[in-house]
Please model this.
Amino acid sequence: MDKDWDPYANEAYFQATQEDRCAPRSKVNIPASLRASGSKSFHTVVHDLSLGGFSATALNRMHVGTICWLTLPGLESQQAEVVWWLRGQVGCAFANLLSPIVYDNILLRYRGDGVYRPVA
Model:
């Protein structure tokens, strides 16, 4: 784990990732790729997305604290840290909150069914 990375140094991040889920989560179904630090990327499906993180399919165990990168179609990779893994699902917190504009654009393009809709 990157010792210089402190997810709670940013107050907005801290607030958005608290248990009360200040950042609303949206159910989605987005094909993506996920890569753990030092490993090869693998195909995944993001099932849940918020400004502060995501959950996705990860059949192989991912250990809490592992740094990883999520790549959604049309976007650059986003750094995250594994927060939990359970029965083939992983939950991760983004190193930096997603921009609300980027988040809204993702939701416009993927409305829970994995079908990409170009925004006119």
